[in-house]
């Protein structure tokens, strides 16, 4: 078999110019693009500025109200703590009891559903099992009748031989 001549491949590499190390110049790069914001971006900022400001103001008012309420209620908590601590424990135990009874109720219902499903499946296959049991009992009765007949004949034969 004759060898084919390999085609010549010509690879062209562009000449890269080697630049001297470039010093960082802060004016080359900026954090923001050099162009200004678009009209759509300005409209979004102008629309959301009042909303954000009002939400920030409401958060501040809520914080101040919470601090004032805590300052007013703290002495009451200290004064009534002998009553509040047992009441809190009682509420906790009541909630825990309700949740526990609910969990046990769900567990009981799921257990009853499982038992009902097992009974339903067993009752579906029950007629087949009863028919098979009847057939086995009939076979056993026939077999026992045959054995009884054979035993009776054997006994009769032995009695006849003994009488001779």
Protein described:
It is a single chain. The protein has 164 residues and is an all-alpha fold. 76% of the residues lie in helices and 0% in strands. The chain has 1 helix and no strands. It has one helix spanning 39-163. The model has no long low-confidence stretch (mean pLDDT 83).
Question: Key terms for this structure?
Answer:
164 residues, mainly alpha, 76% helix, flat
Distance N terminus to C terminus?
A: 110 Å
Q: Largest sheet, if any?
A: none
What are the low-pLDDT stretches, counting only 5+ consecutive residues below 50? none
Helical content stands at: over 70%
In N-to-C order, the SSE pattern is H
The total beta strand count reads 0
Content-based structural category: mainly alpha
**How many alpha or pi helices?**
1
Beta-sheet strand percentage?
A: under 5%
- What's the overall average pLDDT, rounded? 83
**Rg from alpha-carbon coordinates:** 49 Å
Shape: flat
């Amino acid at each position: 078999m004759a060898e084919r001549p390999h085609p010549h491949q010509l690879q062209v590499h562009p000449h890269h110019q080697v630049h001297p190390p470039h010093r960082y110049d802060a004016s080359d790069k900026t954090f923001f693009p050099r162009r200004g914001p678009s009209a759509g971006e300005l409209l979004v900022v102008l629309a959301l500025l009042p909303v954000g400001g009002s939400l920030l103001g409401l958060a501040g008012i809520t914080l101040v109200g919470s601090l004032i309420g805590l300052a007013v209620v703290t002495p009451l908590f200290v004064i009534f703590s002998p009553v509040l601590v047992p009441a809190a424990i009682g509420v906790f135990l009541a909630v825990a009891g309700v949740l526990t009874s609910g969990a046990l109720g769900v567990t009981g219902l799921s257990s009853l559903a499982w038992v009902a499903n097992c009974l339903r499946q067993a009752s579906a296959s029950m007629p087949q099992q009863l028919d098979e049991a009847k057939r086995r009992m009939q076979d056993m009765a026939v077999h026992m009748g045959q054995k009884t007949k054979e035993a009776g004949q054997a006994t009769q034969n032995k009695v006849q031989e003994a009488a001779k």
